[in-house]
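idk why but the lab printer keeps eating my pages so im just putting this in chat instead. protein + N-oxalylglycine:
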Amino acid sequence: MNAVESTLEVASFTPYPITHHPIHIELHEESMTVTWDHQHKSEYHYLWLRDNCHCPECISTKTREQVFEICDVPYTIKPSNAYITDDHRIVVDWDYADHTSKYHPGWLLSHCYSEEVVQSKQWKPILWDKERITTELPRAKSSTLIQSDEVLLTWLRDLRDYGIGIVSDVGTELGSLKAVTDRIAFMRESNYGTLFDVTTTAKANTSANTNIRLPLHTDLSARELQPGLQFLHCLVNDATGGESIYVDGFKIAEYMREHHPEEFRDLSTIPMTFNNKDPYCDYNYRSTVIATDSNGEVTEVRHANFIRVPIDVPAHQTMALYKAYQCFIRLTREPAFQLFFRLTAGEMVVFDNRRVLHARNAFDLKTGMRQLQGCYIDRDEFLSRIRILERSTTLSGS
Ligand code: OGA
Ligand code: ZN
Ligand code: ZN
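predcted complex ->
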């Protein structure tokens, strides 16, 4: 079978290289155990196998989306016959509706859902403090990101894992960041525009466009979906002050979980409301500062004290929320957690705005100019780009 046929055999756009062969199958009441030639055993439930039939009747060959719906077979469906073919496929004849399914070994093994495999595939952020990020901060040159898919993929994976990275030699023209962002995805628009300027203006509708200190925050925290990646491209930075500060919000959350468990619990369960308004817009969103998923993993940090509205939780939670909130902000102010640097003209910092907090010191307009240009790209677009690059580059791992 040639490579194209074996890809079409799997109703997906992702290639599934065959790394191991099934050598034995054992049928049980509700599931089948497959033993692979590296001795790994995978258990696949019959309902799961029927659900994942790749035949053209069950999955559209065009969109590669499922047409079949599992409710159309009995809950107790079983194989009437099952065997391994000479070319290492597993074939199952079903005891219902005269249907046969054939499983590609590369696809089947990569979808093994044993606990150890699922856990080993779980993405884990690389948490950082000052010491770690000072030596490990992901850096790339704009021209190499533009020219090489492999450099781009490596840098994007680092950006995903650390939540921050620097691009140098972006240029000092307005809009020159686009050469880099175009390599990733389209931008996310907001009421500040698609590309926004961070410069001092007389009619500023946000503290960002003044010369005052901006405390640590995430951008657009009054939106239900905070923007994912934030790009801040430095065009001019010759005023005194204006240094940048970045803190890994996930690191702070995990530090709290370990050292201040009650405060962690309260900050991840008791909400507060964020409100952002000017004469033309009024955004409002209520959420916890730390968001976790169904496994308790931290997925997001939301923090902008300057647009938080008065706390309005039940009286028995008020002091607990203040205690947790004080604890969180005090930790973010610890220099040991802070990446502190000065952006230079032509440099661009990129960070996961739903994870990494950013701040800047006040700057003195009498001493010079400071001008940045920024934009956002949502997490989904950026992660999709990584997966697409992974389909075609030779770099392994994820
Ligand atoms: C912002 C901001 C940082 C800076 O525009 O939201 O945080 O360095 N700017 O000016
Ligand atoms: Zn089918
Ligand atoms: Zn900001």
